[in-house]
Amino acid sequence: MTRAFIALGGNLGDTHATLRKALDALDALPRTRLVAHSRFYRTPPWGLHEQPAFLNAAAELDTGLAPHALLDALLEIERGAGRVRDGERWGPRTLDLDLLYMGGVVLDDERLTLPHPRIAERAFVLLPLADLAPDLELPGQGRVDALLAAVDASGCTVDP
């Protein structure tokens, strides 16, 4: 089994319910167990600012799936939640699942980069990830707690 971390987010519809269903779907993946999930965070939009705030979280998994198989499963969960990938970056969405880290694997191909290349820039990823693994060393990027200390997280709040 390999330890993996997934970022979850959304800003359309009932985001609490969507994220909870996504966590259940992650736990139901073959050869995969949901170990823990972070608190939910209300965060300002990234990139395109004229849209609703996001709800973000992170999940910690033990999985026997290979990286690309896990990515395919994440995309299927997104589709099941009504996510349409129309090429728009940073726009509104029902659900976004990003594979952040997978057992120290370093990978960069046309479909997947591990660890996720923009973790260090994003408080909306680092805050929930720090709930689960503040001392996690991301190859080529640093420790989660140090990365979080270097970003502005002032617009992010814990969502009850």
Q: How does this structure look, described?
A:
The chain is α+β, with helices and mostly antiparallel strands. The chain has one domain: Alpha-Beta Plaits (2-Layer Sandwich), CATH 3.30.70.560. Helices cover 27% and strands 29% of the residues. It has four helices and ten strands, in the order βαβββαβββαββαβ. Strands 1, 2, 3, 4, 5 and 10 form a six-stranded antiparallel sheet that branches. Strands 6-7 form a two-stranded antiparallel ribbon. Strands 8-9 form a two-stranded antiparallel ribbon. β6 and β7 form a beta hairpin. The longest helix is centred in the middle third of the chain and has 14 residues, at 67-80. It starts with a strand and ends with a strand. The model has no long low-confidence stretch (mean pLDDT 94).
Gist?
With 160 residues, the chain is α+β, with helices and mostly antiparallel strands. Helices cover 27% and strands 29% of the residues.
